[in-house]
Amino acid sequence: MGKERNKKLFKQYELNELLEFQSSFREFVNEMMIDISSLTNMISEVDNSNLKLLRDNLSEISNALIKTQLELDKIEGLEKTYIENMCNLIGSGIDNLWFIDEEILLNLLDLYSINEKFVFDEKFVIKYINENFDTYIEPIINSAIFSGQKSILDEAVRLYKCQNYSLVLFPLFASFDNLFTRWIKGKVEEYNNFDKIFVKALGGKLRKIQDKYHPIQTLNLDDSTRFTIAMAYPILFNPDPTEKERRLNRNSIMHGSHDYESVTKEDCMKLFVLLRLALDAIKYEPIKLYH
Predict the structure, then answer these.
(1) Do 219 and 83 contact (CB within 8 A), yes or no?
(2) Within 13 A of 219's CA, how many CA atoms are on the CB side?
(3) N or C, fewer C-beta in 10 Å, the chain?
(4) Beta strand segments in 124-210, E
(5) Is the pLDDT of residue 129 over 80?
(6) What is the rounded CA–CA span in Å between residue 61 and residue 32?
(7) How far apart are CA 86 and CA 92, in angstroms?
């Protein structure tokens, strides 16, 4: 999986190769057009039937190169389409309280070719996690980053496998809250620092800077990851959640005002995915709350 992630942004390796070819080939075409134009001008000054035939041939080549340039323009359009599709996929996940990590996103994008419309497939995600649960959560359970929370994370996994889903959410939310805040404060490596780490009005501050990290402008994996996690905290930690947000709301869950009987296996999956997203995020520079 690590090798896959090194491809930078999901299928960007395909798109980048195409764009690099497009750029170098366009440069070649432009040079050819200049040379043909110069040669055509030189031939026009000479009254020779053979040279006139050559001029006609050059004109045909020039027209073919113009058509080639139009095709190259279509390749440039693929980049915009790809970014828009990727953002729609991430956004569709967020709308359903799935804040997807790089592994899930990679596997979703592998379902489509570059110019297809990307659709967030919740059934695929649930099936993927079900079939790969132990290997998927392994980076969470065995990460030194979560060493201070290891005992409660181990218990969360045990409860999940016993189908006691309502009790799984507490340790997962607590672990995410701790790591996310440590990342924001630049204290990720302080694994066993049990001093209270707090950022006042963090949700409101994140809402103000979310657009800065929106990946619609870039193909950078760090931007898409930071954007997703910047969206996650204000939604899941909203003190006044909407009806949809109340389905998985940290405040109601931690303060005893949640409908615990309604907690599902899929709700727990969403928080395991959130922890994987947090582990992805800490590879990058922390979000800056003030711009």
Answers:
(1) yes
(2) 17
(3) C
(4) none
(5) yes
(6) 9
(7) 10
